[in-house]
Amino acid sequence: MPRDCEFLVVGGGIAGVSCAESLAICRPTASVLLLTESSIVKSVTNLVPVARYLHKFDVREQDVSEMGATIETLVDQLDHINSIEHWIRTRKGVVVKYRYICLCTGGAPKLFSSGEAVEPRIIGIRDTDSVLELQRRLAAAKDVMILGNGGIASELAYELKDVNVHWVVKDAHISATFVDPGAAEFFQLARNEVDTKDSSPVTAIKRMRYGELLSKEQDIKHGAALGPDWHRTFDLSGAAGKQDKRLPKIYYKSHIESYKELAEEAGLKIQLSHEDGSSEQLTCDFIVSATGVLPRHEYTCDCPLKFSEDGGISVDEMMRTNLKDVYAAGDVCTASWSPAMHWFQMRLWTQARQMGSMAGRSMAAASEDETVYQDFCFELFGHVTKLFGYPVVLLGRFNGQDLDRNYEILVRCTRNKEYIKFVLQNGRLRGAILIGDTDLAETCENLILNGIDLEPYGDDILNPDIDIEDYFD
Ligand SMILES: Cc1cc2nc3c(=O)[nH]c(=O)nc-3n(C[C@H](O)[C@H](O)[C@H](O)COP(=O)(O)OP(=O)(O)OC[C@H]3O[C@@H](n4cnc5c(N)ncnc54)[C@H](O)[C@@H]3O)c2cc1C
Ligand SMILES: NC(=O)C1=CN([C@@H]2O[C@H](COP(=O)(O)OP(=O)(O)OC[C@H]3O[C@@H](n4cnc5c(N)ncnc54)[C@H](OP(=O)(O)O)[C@@H]3O)[C@@H](O)[C@H]2O)C=CC1
């Protein structure tokens, strides 16, 4: 006997739950069904504004049965969509008729592979199961390789204990998907000195033209997931013996050339090659491939969904796919509208929540033949996180993304305390990295959005003795 609902949301991650909750608010009497393969769903709690458009929040895991009464739930896997007749079939054979559907099926780790058979000693991190697997392997590990230079690699490099970490990055500095070489240096100095009390922290302000910023050959170019501080809930200790501070050995501008399973479960022999043409060999118990996200859509559809190059389902600014009444949000989708000047997609909770809510509003409006406009959050990229123990706010084009080469960097740095980077183009703020308790997030939001010419203020804009908020209040 087919079930039916007006709104069907697939996926119990941040995007799917935000979408279902947004629908329950916009259309309180409508039938909303959340279909998800896992009985654990993730929702946003403790949403706290950090600035006018920027929020930080916690991710709460709850049993799907605890979802609000206004949202029906079904624990099963989406198997097939009939978009013309508006019904789906689940893996267990349940048929659900819908009026509108939103696909929020998230992503999976994009694992490094040398093209041969899947290597069991190469693992990814996505959800609780994958972390339990990591924990299991760590318990007997002395040497672990982390491949990748983004969010997960940065977290693991900071959190893994009592194990020799070999961190292999393609770039000339760490955490390149989030920060620039200057901030990477700030983090590393802090890690080395964090025990020494620096009585008079030195503050330096520096302005660099684009060309000065990069070492000659470096070129700027630049994934029911886990929640913030996921690493706090798990003991990530290895078996290399207690040592109070064992810093990762970092292999810059390097990549894995090849790897071979050693006899008697002795681990992997890995051949690394470096950009300067040299190479080296090392042995590790396993590799964590922290190398991005692959959008997950393991279901069929009567009509072809349009996908983007990165494998995500293409959506417009209303989160609509190319198929009528089929929407998508979160890691599974790729923003395919022409973005605002200071926004771009990164697969983050921040954006999964924003996209899920936007999809809910958009579907509700469509069901009542109303018009909605894109949420303001898509005007400005904003992300609040923590890296190496420091609060980090990323705003706009924080690393000069797509600004070509005509931009300036203004940096204020106080060792072990704060690192503030402004990305300025023709005197206007285009992006900012704020590390530490800078209280500058809202000011930077305003400066980026109102495009005020900062040229007249020169370097004073970051003078610690001047409260720049006073300039612009
Ligand atoms: C280790 C790790 C740390 C991270 N840390 C941060 C961070 O600090 N800050 C941040 O902003 N972002 C972080 N992220 C990224 C963030 O987790 C994701 O961007 C976000 O959770 C994506 O949400 P989603 O709902 O789109 O996808 P997911 O969370 O992947 O949820 C997808 C849901 O769909 C379900 N599903 C999939 N296929 C089907 C199907 N066929 N039928 C039914 N259900 C299905 C899954 O079971 C899951 O419930 C991290 C990611 C990882 C892996
Ligand atoms: N604090 C936070 O906000 C956190 C956010 N996340 C998010 O979760 C998702 C998954 O995280 P993660 O897996 O770290 O993804 P990220 O996109 O953050 O980082 C992937 C990294 O792997 C590199 N890479 C990709 N392919 C290869 C390869 N074959 N060999 C070597 N390096 C490679 C990428 O380099 P390149 O960019 O040059 O391709 C990049 O440095 C991301 O969307 C991330 O933003 C995760 C943890 C914490």
From TrEMBL:
Q: What PROSITE patterns would the database entry show?
A: PROKAR_LIPOPROTEIN (PS51257)
Which InterPro entries does the protein's record reference? FAD-bd_OxRdtase (IPR050260), FAD/NAD-bd_sf (IPR036188), FAD/NAD-binding_dom (IPR023753), FAD/NAD-linked_Rdtase_dimer_sf (IPR016156), Rubredoxin_C (IPR041575)
Is the keyword DNA damage in the record? no
Domain FAD/NAD(P)-binding stretches: 8-206, 258-356
Residue ranges of every copy of the NADH-rubredoxin oxidoreductase C-terminal domain listed in the record: 386-451
What's a Gene Ontology MF term here? oxidoreductase activity
User: One Pfam family, short name please?
Assistant: Pyr_redox_2
Q: Keywords in UniProt for this one?
A: FAD, Flavoprotein, Oxidoreductase
Q: Does the keyword Flavoprotein apply?
A: yes
Q: Give the cofactors, semicolon-separated.
A: FAD
* Record-stated family: Belongs to the class-I pyridine nucleotide-disulfide oxidoreductase family. PYROXD1 subfamily.
Task: Give the protein's recorded name.
Answer: Pyridine nucleotide-disulfide oxidoreductase domain-containing protein 1
Question: What organism does this protein naturally occur in?
Answer: Drosophila rhopaloa (Fruit fly)
